[in-house]
Amino acid sequence: MPDPRFQEQVIYICAHNEEGAMGLVINNPNPEITLFDVLHGSNLNIPEGPLPPVYIGGPVDVDAGFILYTTETPDRYAVEVKPGIYLSRDSRLLEDISLGQGPQHFLFMLGYAGWGAGQLEGELMDNSWLTVPGDIDILFHTPDGEKWRKSAKVYGIDIAAFGDVIGSA
After folding, report:
1. d(C-alpha 115, C-alpha 133), whole Å
2. What is the pLDDT of residue 152?
3. Which parts of the chain fold into alpha helices (H)?
């Protein structure tokens, strides 16, 4: 992707229909905001132990928080993205996390990546993106710096073979 905002980024598509698409960057931790900052700023408890990073979910609506997580019992406002994987903006889920009662595996993001009607399809036709099925192991158990390479490699793509030129033959 020649756009520097998306170079080496893995975007998990959460919604895609005739009105457009919405996804979350899952491998871009925010160097300026921590989960401690978010919880403390919301007057929530700070759980013991290391806290996961806050991710820059994309360039759109950067003040909006999103929680992508896996569970058998989602919160009532969650949207099922794929069986077992949910997306929520419910602040009560963040409160549950602060109390150690939230999902074991989650990513907290600020902002999202969005496309208008037909925009993502056009970018896909221009070969601007590599598309691979979502993988829970990559989402929640792979170090951020390895997610984009592993995403490609799992599906037999050698990312080193791709250059900065896009197009189709």
Report:
1. 19
2. 86
3. 35-41, 91-98, 119-125, 136-141, 144-154
